[in-house]
Each structure stands twice: as structure tokens, then as C-alpha cells.
Amino acid sequence: MSIFETFKGLRSGIGANSYGQVVNIVIQLVSVPVFLFFWSAEEYGKWLLLVAIPSYLSMSDFGIANVVSNQMNMLSARGEWAAVNELFGGTLTLFFIILSAAFVLGGGIFYFDDASYVVVYVLCLNVILILSGNLIQAVFRCYDRYSSGVYWDVNSRLIEWVSSIVAVSVSKDFVVVALSMLFARVVWLVYAIVYLTKINGDIHFRFGRIGCISHLIKDSIRFSLIPLSNGINIQGFSILVGSLLGPVYLVVFNSYRTISRMAIQMVSIVSHSAWPKFSRMYGAGGAGIRDLYESLTAYIWVGVIALAICVFVFYYFFISYWTNGEVVFDPGLSAVFFIYSILGGGWHLSRILLISTNNHGKLALFMLLANAIALVIGFFSVNSVVDAVLILVALEFLLFVYSRKESGLLLSDFDK
């Protein structure tokens, strides 16, 4: 398969995911100065703390939305719309129950004097709506409109963020800002439902039996182990370095890792664009899935190595200017992170292949076990930042080998 043929079907998805990366960067860069313009540093710090608390709810669906989305996409590829609607209706009912329970059980907080309770409550409702939005993306995928779903999701975050900026400029009250975010999310969700109903009527926005998704619970729980493993990797090693070496070395570690992960993030734009393609191909019998995977793997390897080299070459510039000279450039540390970024990007597509076809169970368990063991080893052996990075390199190598093995076994069922 030529490079043109490989990327022709993915270019709209790549464009949408690239747009998402740009929006995320803009939000991250602009939020701090804008909010600090209206709030004091203490107020903004309190807001960040309040926002962080509901974020843990993002795992409350135990991966059900993602697993159901994959299954719906595979079923739609075979034209089994009755089964698609059954899954969609059951999941819709589940999320409605979760949202209703949260609304009723948390309603009493409005009687507390501290507005923080109200803010957290409203933000929790918003997070549940975000989880429900994953089902909207599932509908887009079933209609083979993956890029439209990504644009909708990114724009929902953008509109929510803009509404919070407008709210804080009008009122510095935390509750007003939180309510503005919730209102924006509700309006955008309703818009998506109306839009999808008009363009295609194959999927009905109706409640169904929860029992129809019971066979996906096992896959859903295992899917939830993947973000848990990522949390151990990202936050766990940050806490490890900070507690063993001190806050100064933590800044060094996080600065270098953030820069080195730029190559991995760029690779993820391509691999995530292949996600719905893998699902539909697998659901339709697997024709062409090996060809697409092998073609993308070759180009991703070239891309991740080229990007890693660029990052390595400009490490001095990034470290010196991005940190205002607070972090000193270390060639040896840069070299180790260079290997880390290549390995991290090298197995990303294998992971997406397994996740998109709901064959991620063994990988998820291995990821959790490997990350946990790596963290324990680090606790007893890390004496420098380089030690921590070497453990991460070994971890990425193990995950690379295992994910390639699992994806190879999956692809062995299909002829080239």
C-alpha cells in the first residue's frame, strides 16, 4: 500500500486530531494569564483544586463508553443496526441513571454555606455529561464520520472554555463559572443530538435495557486499567522523583519528559485516526486490516525517529528558553529521553489496534502490572533523574515487545 493510499482515508481524521492538539495547546497557554487577570493567584489555585476533584469521575464509567463505541462501530460495519441500537439504548439508560443519581444524591450540598461544595457538584455533573458525549462520538463513528465527531468533541471543549472565560470576566464567582461550563456542555450536547438525528436515522436516541451491555463489562473494566496504568506512569513517577530527589529534580524530570513526549503526541494523531478504521475493518471480517497496520507502522517508525531527532537537536533551545534558564541542559539525560520517546511512539499503533477491536484485555493487565512493578523498583533504586528515566526506558521496551506480540497474534487470523 502506497503512502498516498494509506493516508488518503485518514487525512480527515489526522486533520481533526491536529486541530484538537492546537486547541489544547491554546487553552493551556491562554488559561493561566486570562484567569490570573481576573482572579488572584490564591483564587486561581483554589479553582484548579476544585476542578481537579471531579476529574477523577472521568473513570467512573469503567471504559464502558469506549468499549461500546468500538462494538457499535464493528456492528454498523456489518449493517447490524438493530444490535447497534440495542447497545446504544442500554448505554444511554446507564448514563442517565448515573446522571440522575448524582443529581439527586448531591442536591443537598446547596444547603451548605461553603460554595465550594456547589462548584464541585456542578463540575461533577459536567464530567458525567462529558462521558455521555463519548456516546455521541460513537454515533459519528457508526455513520463513518469520525472526523466530524472529533471536531464536535474539540469544539465542545473550546465552547466550554470560552464560556468560562466570559463568566469569570462578568462575575468572579466560582459557582457562576462552573454553571456556565455546564450550560455550554448541555447546549452543545443537544445540538449534536438534533444534528445526528437529521443526517441519519439509523440510530435512535431512545433508552433501552441495561442488560444488553452486560457482556461488555469485562472488556470495559480492563479498558479502565489503561488510563490507570498511564496515571501510575505519569503521576506515579513524578511523585517518586519528587519524594526521593526533591522538588528541584522533579522540575528537571518533568521538563525533559514533557518535551520528549512531543514526538509521541504527534504519532498519536495518526494512530488515533486509524482507530475507527481498524474497528470497521475488524467488524467487517478483517479485510485490509493487516495491510493498513503494516503500512502505518512503517511510516510511523520513520516519523517518530525523525521527530525524536528534531526534539533531541533542539533540546538545548527548549530547555533553556522554555524554563527561563531554571533547568540546565544535560546531553546525557537528553540522549536517554531520546530513546524513551522512540520506544513510546513505536508501540502506540499496536495499542490502538488492540483497543479499537476490543482485544485489549491482556495488554491492559500487562500495562498495569509492568507500571506497578517499575514504580516499586524505582522506589528502591532511583538515586538520580537518569535512574528514573532508565527505568521508564526499560518499561517502554517491555510494553513495545508485548504489544507487538499481541497485535501480531491478532493479525495472524487474517490473510495479507
Automatic annotation (TrEMBL):
Domain of life: Bacteria
Cell compartment(s), UniProt: Cell membrane
UniProt key word Signal: no
Keyword list, A-Z: Cell membrane, Membrane, Transmembrane, Transmembrane helix
Topological relation to the membrane, as annotated: Multi-pass membrane protein
Keyword set includes Transmembrane helix: yes
Sequence intervals crossing the membrane: 21-41, 47-68, 88-112, 118-140, 174-196, 232-252, 298-319, 331-349, 361-379, 385-402
Organism: Parathalassolituus penaei
One cellular component term from this protein's GO annotations in UniProt: plasma membrane
Region forming the signal peptide: none
Pfam family name, one: Polysacc_synt
InterPro entries listed in its UniProt record: Poly_Biosynth_Transport, Polysacc_synth
Protein name: Polysaccharide biosynthesis protein
